[in-house]
Design a protein that fits this description.
The chain is built from 11 helices and 12 strands. It is of the alpha/beta class. It has a 12-stranded mixed sheet. The chain binds S-adenosylmethionine. S-adenosylmethionine binds next to strand 3, strand 5 and helix 11.
Length: 359
């Protein structure tokens, strides 16, 4: 492991809460109004992506100007503030996290929180296109598991779903990551009329390679101009019923602390997860919040309410305003979301795309 004291700094040494010196000063742990401890932070490090998955982004997307983005130093400072307040799991996401220039510098710096024991897990969600290049360094930074999004093993369908992606690059990335020792979970969005009849094959492949597979219902996030959400939406209750005809699905208590419910598939001896934000609301055990690459904190993936942490970060080299803004925002965390996909209601539940909030 690298775990060197490579702390990212862009301000004078010694500001309170600089996060550069360990151990952290005592700070109260974050607990929301429903007494859920907030221990999981997902941070989108860029809104840009090298793919344009049809359910995630429009073909024509306008991306944020670079000056609006938090610097790597600010991202480090922000993550560190959350770690100080009880975050034990940190996931970098996007957009595509690995397209952010120098993102490995951020991983290297954040790995100090693994070394100190404050953080239990540092991980990422990626589309896999750049994984071959970065897998070994991720392992060296203490990353142990990665989620790779992959909806199909058919090269033509992959190209269509991602608008131009090359499946071979992703499969190579997954293989290099596996050989480097990373545990891999494949995440696939179940899409009506697209991959719905391929999901059993995808599961066979994933389990054969030793990877868990999680299926996800498409969520009504962001306006799509070329497709209707209701044309994409495939309830996982239906997928599960279909798979049950071919496979023995034994419910597991096993939880990753997330919204997925898991089964062990007897025939493949692999783990299959279902994330069902529409057919089953999973908010009661929610322990997570998300920060965008501009420092906007969303307390719920499916609600609009947010807090501007960039202003607090930039207000002072001291972390006091940031800490206060975080505390105040968590006190407004809602009980849950209420996604609905209906043919007669075409507007999204929230206007921002998943690539903005960070999936
Ligand atoms: N680029 C990275 C990746 O591909 O994993 C991270 C960001 S991506 C937005 C994170 C995850 O969100 C992917 O698994 C993607 O399939 C999923 N996703 C995007 N839009 C979605 C939607 N509307 N409903 C459900 N999942 C979505």
């Amino acid at each position: 492991m690298i775990f060197k004291e490579t702390v990212l700094r862009d301000r004078p040494e010694g500001g309170a809460g600089a996060g550069a010196t360990m151990p952290f000063p005592a700070g109260s742990k974050l607990v929301d109004p429903f007494l859920r401890p907030i221990t999981y932070l997902r941070v989108s490090v860029t809104d840009r992506c090298d793919l344009r998955c049809v359910y995630c982004m429009d073909e024509e997307m306008s991306f944020l100007p670079k000056r609006d983005l938090l610097t790597l130093e600010e991202l480090d400072r922000l993550c560190t503030a959350f770690v100080r307040r009880g975050t034990t799991k940190l996931r970098l996401t996007g957009g595509e996290p690995l397209v952010r220039r120098d993102v490995m510098r951020l991983f290297r710096s954040l790995s100090r929180h693994l070394a100190s024991g404050a953080l239990k897990e540092l991980t990422l969600t990626t589309n896999g296109t750049l994984l071959a290049r970065h897998a070994q360094e991720l392992v060296d930074c203490g990353v142990r598991r990665v989620n790779v999004s992959l909806d199909t093993l058919d090269p033509a369908r992959f190209r269509r779903l991602t608008r131009w992606g090359d499946l071979a690059k992703v499969l190579e990335g997954i293989e290099v990551a596996r050989r480097a020792g990373l545990k891999i979970k494949i995440n696939a969005v179940a899409l009506k009329g697209e991959n719905e009849h391929e999901l059993a094959d995808l599961m066979h492949w994933a389990h054969g390679e030793g990877h868990a597979l999680t299926l996800i219902e498409v969520m009504p996030l962001g306006e799509l101009t070329t497709t209707m959400r209701s044309d994409q939406y495939l309830p996982l209750s239906l997928v599960r019923a279909r798979l049950s005809k071919q496979f023995t699905l034994d419910d597991l208590d096993h939880s990753s602390g997330g919204p997925a419910r898991y089964v062990r598939v007897k025939e493949t001896n692999g783990i299959l997860g279902f994330i069902t934000p529409l057919t089953h609301n999973f908010c009661e055990s929610c322990n997570r919040v998300r920060v965008t690459c501009t420092g906007t904190l969303y307390m719920c993936l499916g609600q609009e309410d947010a807090a501007d942490l960039r202003a607090a970060l930039r207000a002072s080299p001291d972390d006091e305003p940031l800490d206060q803004a975080i505390t105040e925002a968590i006190s407004r965390k809602p009980k849950g979301h209420d996604f609905v996909i209906e043919r007669r209601r075409s507007e999204p539940a929230v206007a921002r795309h998943m690539s903005v909030t960070g999936g």
